[in-house]
Design brief:
The chain has 286 residues and is an all-alpha fold. The chain contains 14 helices and no strands. Keywords: Signal.
Length: 286
């Protein structure tokens, strides 16, 4: 007579065990989901930093197709497209991002950046105008300065460049842009000062060195500035100074600088040599 009771007890124990196993399985599944999420996040970070841009675009394209509502993956796709030099596609994705729940002011700044990269200055200006003035970041003001530059609103551009340079510990890039802005509007002296300051933060940047030489040459100062440079860079900077001198009508000085460029370069400096030949040929015809 005890068999039914025993069976009932056994069945009860089995059900209890099954209940425990179900609970444990749920916990395991949750743990695995967490691990997978962490792995996916790590992979996304890798793709955005050290991954090949084309591989990153492919990865985030697949991921956004699988999970279109995940804003972090949409951001990853947009950033990867910028890295892959596809700013127009990036701008379309950033527009999608800023319309999603959880979008931030930084997303709008990133959209404006992609629009500038794709030469959509009007779009960038409109996007920046939607960002609240309380969002004061280096990236935001750097873009504001560039847009003001494109509008030739020099007063506003100078103001934004100054604000941006004060919001970063590495302002070399924005100082170089500001200097180039000054140079294009004819303020060579102001440009020289900004290029020189930019080099104090990044003394190895050749573009800034070249811009500094152009700013000095625009003022008739053709001697090379006292800055850090390799022998090859010295030859290239002499070449820049020589061409600038010739454009200003100082042909004799320009010829001498071109010759110095050829003599200075550790390898044969074809560009300077060709410029000298053209100059000499022009003199003979004259």
């Amino acid at each position: 007579m005890r068999h039914p009771i025993f069976l009932a007890a056994l069945m009860g124990g089995t059900l209890a065990l099954a209940g425990c196993m179900g609970s444990e399985k749920t916990e395991v599944d949750r743990a695995l989901d967490t691990v997978n999420a962490v792995d996916a996040t790590n992979l996304s970070d890798i793709m955005l930093t050290v991954g090949d841009p084309r591989e990153a675009v492919a990865y985030f394209t697949r991921s956004t197709n699988e999970s279109p509502d995940r804003i972090d993956l949409q951001r990853g796709l947009a950033k990867s497209l910028v890295r892959a030099n596809e700013p127009e596609r990036a701008a379309k994705v950033w527009k999608r991002v800023v319309s999603m729940e959880g979008a931030t002011a930084d997303d709008k700044v990133a959209l404006a950046d992609a629009q500038i990269r794709s030469n959509d200055w009007a779009g960038a200006k409109a996007t920046l105008n939607t960002i609240p003035p309380t969002h004061e970041t280096f990236e935001r003001y750097k873009l504001e300065a560039m847009v003001a530059d494109s509008d030739q609103n020099w007063k506003k551009a100078d103001s934004f460049y100054e604000i941006a340079s004060g919001l970063t510990t590495q302002p070399s890039g924005v100082l170089n842009n500001w200097g180039f802005s000054k140079l294009t509007r004819g303020d060579a002296k102001g440009a020289e000062k900004l290029f020189a300051e930019a080099l104090t933060y990044n003394p190895g940047n050749f573009t800034t060195k070249n811009n500094l030489v152009m700013a000095r040459a625009a003022q008739g100062k053709y001697d090379l500035p006292v800055i850090e440079m390799t022998q090859t860079e010295r030859a290239k900077l002499l070449y820049t100074a020589g061409l600038s001198a010739i454009k200003k009508g100082d042909v004799t000085i320009g010829r001498g600088l071109l010759q110095d460029a050829v003599d200075t370069s550790p390898v044969y400096f074809d560009e300077a040599a060709r410029a000298l030949e053209a100059l000499d040929a022009g003199s003979r015809r004259g």
